[in-house]
Structure formats: structure tokens, C-alpha cells
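Hey team,

Filing this mostly as a record. A colleague (T.K.) asked me to run one chain through the structure pipeline before their review meeting, and I want the input and output archived in the tracker in case anyone asks later how it was produced. No errors, nothing strange. Just documentation.

Input sequence:
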Amino acid sequence: MPYGMMRDVTGRLMLLDTASLYFRAFFGVPESVKAPDGTPVNAVRGLLEFIDRLVQDHHPEHLVACMDADWRPRWRVDLIPSYKAHRVAEEHEAGPDEEEVPDTLSPQVPVIEAVLDALGVARVGVAGYEADDVIGTFTARAAGPVDIVTGDRDLYQLVDDARGVRVLYPLKGVGSLQLTDEALLREKYGVSGSGYADLALLRGDPSDGLPGVPGIGEKTAAKLLAQFGDLAGIMAAVDDPKAKLTPSQRGRLDEARPYLAVAPKVVRVAADVPLPDVDTTLPRAPRDPAVLEALDARWGLGGSLRRLLTTLGA
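Output structure:
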């Protein structure tokens, strides 16, 4: 198998933005859910329940838990230094910076990884890239329909009706999911999937430390994109004295050129991540039953694990 290739995926592929989902599980399931030794396992059990519900409701044939091997890649920070800067707990010269994570969530992440591995759920993180980039590359290479499960609106940029790519965005747990297609994006934001990245970089995103263009909010950004097509069309209009832009819009966009020159590379997810050779098939039985049994006994995964195993075996 050549480096960076993945096995043929023609059936429905479900891609989990794993960190986004276990953060939601952590805040959605009480910390009183504990292992026999008293360690909180609310994120672990909550994530297993999420996966159980997703498989039951959406019937994927393939499932990948996409991971952040680097949640704040240096190549993005070099272009926009404020990128996710407010979420850094500790900087590291040699490797990825440490993200601020609640004290009782951090120890649960290795447990989540071990349980997914024992179940046989494909788990993919690639050095130097975020989970979003892994998701973007799997989506670009999939031959069949794709469901992206994330609480991060950045991934709306991948929505593509023609290819059957939609985002399942949890509104409350995963029992209530917003099925995000192009009709919903046009209704809510006035753009299609491909236009969402341009909208996001123009309006900015405080949660990711993206400044945006001062004075250009979401509605103005959507109006400019409707008028001029895309970011390149908007910047061509800035250079065209006859283009219908207000003087303040023209001035703000002109001043923001240095930011707008680099923002697309930062905001758009990568589609060329060197993916490992991985079997994405939804497991019907655990890959390693003995390890899973030991993890269950150690961490008290109880009904959350049993229900998921029943669903996978159905």
C-alpha cells in the first residue's frame, strides 16, 4: 500500500471529531460517573454512549475516530500567531504545545484511546495535523457518502450535497443532531459548504484566535460573498474602483490584506494528509476481547460498553 493511501471506502463513512465529542461527553455526563477506584470516567462512558447512538441512528459501514496529533500545528501558528493561543497551557519548543484541558478529563483520554483500540474502531491521528485535517483528507478520498460528527462549525466547509457529505452537529448530546447540508448552510449563513471557510476567515472566530477583518461581521461577509463569489472575487473588487463596495468596506479589506493572504491556509482544512493504511470497517466484534474485558473491569464501563457491543454485533 503506497504511503498516504487508504483502503477503498465505498459505503457510508462516519468520521468522528473525537476530541470535540469527548469534551461534550465530559461536560454532558456528571463527574459522579466513576471507575471502581473513584476515578471519573464520565467522558469515557459518555463517548461510548455517543458512538452507540450514532451507529444505531445512522448505520455507517465505516467508522474512524479522528484524533488531534497536534491540536495547534506550528505551520498554522507561523502564519497567524494568535491561532488558538488563548488555549495554550504550556508551550513546547520541540513538540506540540499543551492544550488547557480540565484536570479530570486529561487522564480519561488514554483510556478512551485504549478502549477504541480494543474495540477495533480505527483511530487516526497524523503528526503535525489536527483531527480536522484528517477528517478533510478522509472526506476528499472517500468514494461513498460521508457523515462528519463534530461540535466544531469549521467543518461545515466540507459539506457537499453532490458527494453526500454532511455534518452531524450535536445540539444536545448526540440524541439531538443538526443534519447540516447545503440548504441549511444557505438558510443560516447565506453560503454553500465551499463558501463557509471564506465566511469564517472574514468574520473571524474568537474561539480559534482568528481576528477576522475588523468591521466585517457575519452578515456583511455573507453579503460580500453573494455579491463577488469568493474571497478572490472580493479582493478583485477592492482593486476595482467601479466595484460596488462602500468606502469603509474597501478600506477595511485593503488594510486586512496581510491577514487575508495567509488566513485561507490556516482556516481551510488540509486534504493531503499522509493517512496510514487503516481498516475503517465498522467492527462487529471486539478486536481484542481480553484487553477490552480488562479495561471494563478496571474502569467500570458497565452498561455503556455492553450496549455499544450489542449495537455493533446487531
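Quick notes for T.K.: The radius of gyration is 21 Å. The beta strands are 13-17, 62-66, 88-90, 98-99, 122-124, 146-149, 165-172, 176-180.
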